[in-house]
Amino acid sequence: MVLIITELVFNAALLIFFGYCFWYIGETTPPPDPGNMGSGLWPQFLLGILIVLIALNIFNSIRKYRKEENKRDFSISFHSLFTNKLVIGSIIIGVYSLILDYFGYLLSTILFIFLYMTLLSEKRLVFKIVTSLVATLVIYIIFARVLQVPLPRGIGILRDFALLLETL
Protein backbone atom coordinates (compact mmCIF):
# COMPACT_ATOMS: atom_id res chain seq x y z
CA MET A 1 0.00 0.00 0.00
CA VAL A 2 2.70 2.45 1.01
CA LEU A 3 4.70 1.51 -2.09
CA ILE A 4 1.77 2.43 -4.33
CA ILE A 5 1.47 5.86 -2.70
CA THR A 6 5.23 6.35 -3.00
CA GLU A 7 5.05 5.35 -6.65
CA LEU A 8 2.20 7.82 -7.24
CA VAL A 9 4.13 10.68 -5.62
CA PHE A 10 7.27 9.90 -7.61
CA ASN A 11 5.34 9.57 -10.89
CA ALA A 12 3.47 12.81 -10.23
CA ALA A 13 6.78 14.61 -9.62
CA LEU A 14 8.16 13.18 -12.88
CA LEU A 15 5.00 14.21 -14.73
CA ILE A 16 5.29 17.78 -13.47
CA PHE A 17 9.02 17.95 -14.29
CA PHE A 18 8.64 16.53 -17.81
CA GLY A 19 5.63 18.78 -18.42
CA TYR A 20 7.76 21.78 -17.46
CA CYS A 21 10.58 20.59 -19.74
CA PHE A 22 8.10 20.17 -22.62
CA TRP A 23 6.82 23.71 -22.09
CA TYR A 24 10.33 25.17 -21.67
CA ILE A 25 11.63 23.62 -24.88
CA GLY A 26 8.58 24.89 -26.75
CA GLU A 27 9.15 28.41 -25.43
CA THR A 28 12.91 28.66 -25.88
CA THR A 29 13.60 26.99 -29.22
CA PRO A 30 13.24 29.15 -32.31
CA PRO A 31 10.32 28.38 -34.61
CA PRO A 32 11.27 25.99 -37.42
CA ASP A 33 11.46 27.02 -41.05
CA PRO A 34 8.55 25.85 -43.21
CA GLY A 35 9.15 22.29 -44.38
CA ASN A 36 12.02 21.85 -41.92
CA MET A 37 11.97 20.18 -38.51
CA GLY A 38 13.23 22.45 -35.76
CA SER A 39 15.78 21.64 -33.11
CA GLY A 40 13.12 21.30 -30.42
CA LEU A 41 10.99 18.73 -32.23
CA TRP A 42 12.83 15.58 -31.19
CA PRO A 43 13.14 16.45 -27.46
CA GLN A 44 9.48 17.49 -27.38
CA PHE A 45 8.49 14.27 -29.11
CA LEU A 46 10.36 12.17 -26.53
CA LEU A 47 8.99 14.23 -23.65
CA GLY A 48 5.47 13.83 -25.02
CA ILE A 49 5.89 10.06 -25.08
CA LEU A 50 7.28 10.14 -21.52
CA ILE A 51 4.34 12.24 -20.32
CA VAL A 52 1.81 9.85 -21.87
CA LEU A 53 3.56 6.77 -20.43
CA ILE A 54 3.85 8.29 -16.96
CA ALA A 55 0.17 9.26 -17.06
CA LEU A 56 -0.66 5.64 -17.98
CA ASN A 57 1.52 4.43 -15.11
CA ILE A 58 -0.31 6.74 -12.70
CA PHE A 59 -3.65 5.45 -14.00
CA ASN A 60 -2.53 1.83 -13.50
CA SER A 61 -1.27 2.61 -9.99
CA ILE A 62 -4.60 4.15 -9.06
CA ARG A 63 -6.42 1.09 -10.41
CA LYS A 64 -4.12 -1.16 -8.39
CA TYR A 65 -4.73 0.98 -5.31
CA ARG A 66 -8.50 0.68 -5.65
CA LYS A 67 -8.27 -3.11 -5.90
CA GLU A 68 -6.46 -3.40 -2.59
CA GLU A 69 -8.47 -4.22 0.50
CA ASN A 70 -6.87 -1.80 2.94
CA LYS A 71 -7.86 1.60 1.57
CA ARG A 72 -7.58 3.51 4.85
CA ASP A 73 -3.79 3.49 5.17
CA PHE A 74 -3.03 6.55 3.05
CA SER A 75 0.41 7.46 4.32
CA ILE A 76 3.62 8.24 2.54
CA SER A 77 6.66 6.51 3.93
CA PHE A 78 9.78 8.53 3.28
CA HIS A 79 11.83 5.52 4.33
CA SER A 80 10.35 3.43 1.53
CA LEU A 81 10.76 6.35 -0.88
CA PHE A 82 14.49 6.62 -0.22
CA THR A 83 15.11 2.87 -0.18
CA ASN A 84 13.56 2.46 -3.63
CA LYS A 85 16.35 1.73 -6.13
CA LEU A 86 14.66 3.81 -8.83
CA VAL A 87 14.62 6.89 -6.61
CA ILE A 88 18.19 6.33 -5.43
CA GLY A 89 19.33 5.83 -9.04
CA SER A 90 17.60 9.06 -10.06
CA ILE A 91 19.33 10.90 -7.22
CA ILE A 92 22.70 9.46 -8.27
CA ILE A 93 22.11 10.62 -11.86
CA GLY A 94 21.06 14.08 -10.64
CA VAL A 95 24.14 14.46 -8.45
CA TYR A 96 26.32 13.19 -11.32
CA SER A 97 24.94 15.84 -13.64
CA LEU A 98 25.56 18.53 -11.01
CA ILE A 99 29.17 17.59 -10.23
CA LEU A 100 30.19 16.85 -13.82
CA ASP A 101 31.32 20.40 -14.60
CA TYR A 102 33.18 20.79 -11.30
CA PHE A 103 34.91 17.41 -10.99
CA GLY A 104 35.29 16.76 -14.69
CA TYR A 105 34.27 13.78 -16.76
CA LEU A 106 36.88 11.33 -15.50
CA LEU A 107 36.38 11.51 -11.73
CA SER A 108 32.61 12.06 -11.96
CA THR A 109 32.05 9.09 -14.25
CA ILE A 110 34.25 6.76 -12.22
CA LEU A 111 32.28 7.67 -9.08
CA PHE A 112 28.96 7.42 -10.94
CA ILE A 113 29.62 3.94 -12.32
CA PHE A 114 30.99 2.73 -8.98
CA LEU A 115 27.94 4.00 -7.06
CA TYR A 116 25.49 2.64 -9.62
CA MET A 117 27.13 -0.79 -9.50
CA THR A 118 26.85 -0.65 -5.71
CA LEU A 119 23.16 0.23 -6.09
CA LEU A 120 22.71 -2.78 -8.36
CA SER A 121 24.08 -4.99 -5.53
CA GLU A 122 27.50 -5.77 -6.95
CA LYS A 123 29.53 -7.04 -3.98
CA ARG A 124 33.04 -7.47 -5.42
CA LEU A 125 35.03 -4.29 -4.72
CA VAL A 126 37.86 -4.99 -7.16
CA PHE A 127 35.36 -5.75 -9.94
CA LYS A 128 33.54 -2.46 -9.28
CA ILE A 129 36.78 -0.47 -9.34
CA VAL A 130 38.12 -2.12 -12.51
CA THR A 131 34.78 -1.86 -14.30
CA SER A 132 34.44 1.81 -13.35
CA LEU A 133 37.91 2.60 -14.66
CA VAL A 134 37.62 0.55 -17.87
CA ALA A 135 34.12 1.79 -18.74
CA THR A 136 35.15 5.40 -18.14
CA LEU A 137 38.23 4.95 -20.31
CA VAL A 138 36.29 3.27 -23.13
CA ILE A 139 33.64 5.99 -23.14
CA TYR A 140 36.38 8.64 -23.01
CA ILE A 141 38.19 7.13 -26.01
CA ILE A 142 34.98 6.87 -28.02
CA PHE A 143 33.79 10.40 -27.38
CA ALA A 144 36.97 12.45 -26.86
CA ARG A 145 39.27 10.72 -29.34
CA VAL A 146 37.12 9.10 -32.03
CA LEU A 147 34.15 11.48 -32.17
CA GLN A 148 36.16 14.47 -30.88
CA VAL A 149 33.41 15.59 -28.51
CA PRO A 150 34.83 17.82 -25.76
CA LEU A 151 34.08 16.35 -22.35
CA PRO A 152 33.95 18.40 -19.12
CA ARG A 153 37.43 18.85 -17.66
CA GLY A 154 36.60 20.08 -14.19
CA ILE A 155 38.14 22.94 -12.28
CA GLY A 156 41.48 23.48 -10.58
CA ILE A 157 43.80 20.51 -10.33
CA LEU A 158 41.21 18.23 -11.95
CA ARG A 159 41.28 20.44 -15.07
CA ASP A 160 45.06 20.27 -15.16
CA PHE A 161 44.92 16.48 -14.86
CA ALA A 162 42.36 16.24 -17.69
CA LEU A 163 44.52 18.46 -19.91
CA LEU A 164 47.52 16.26 -19.13
CA LEU A 165 45.57 13.16 -20.19
CA GLU A 166 44.51 14.86 -23.41
CA THR A 167 48.13 15.41 -24.40
CA LEU A 168 48.89 11.68 -24.17
Describe the structure.
The structure is a single chain. The chain is flat, with a radius of gyration of 21 Å. 76% of the residues lie in helices and 0% in strands. With 168 residues, the protein is mainly alpha-helical. The mean pLDDT is 85. The protein has helices at 2-28, 41-67, 78-82, 85-119, 125-146, 157-167. The chain has six helices and no strands. The chain has two domains: 1-83, no CATH class; 84-168, no CATH class.
Structure summary:
Helix content is 76%, strand content 0%. It has 168 residues and is mainly alpha-helical.
- Rg, Å, rounded: 21 Å
Order of helices and strands: HHHHHH
Q: Give the mean pLDDT.
A: 85
Strand count, sense and barrel status of the largest sheet are: none
Q: How many DSSP H or I helices?
A: 6
Total of domains: 2
Measured between the Cα atoms of the first and last residue, the distance is 56 Å
Structural classification: mainly alpha
- Portion of residues in beta strands equals under 5%
How are the elements arranged and paired?
Layout: H1 2-28, H2 41-67, H3 78-82, H4 85-119, H5 125-146, H6 157-167
Which keywords apply here?
2 domains, mainly alpha, flat
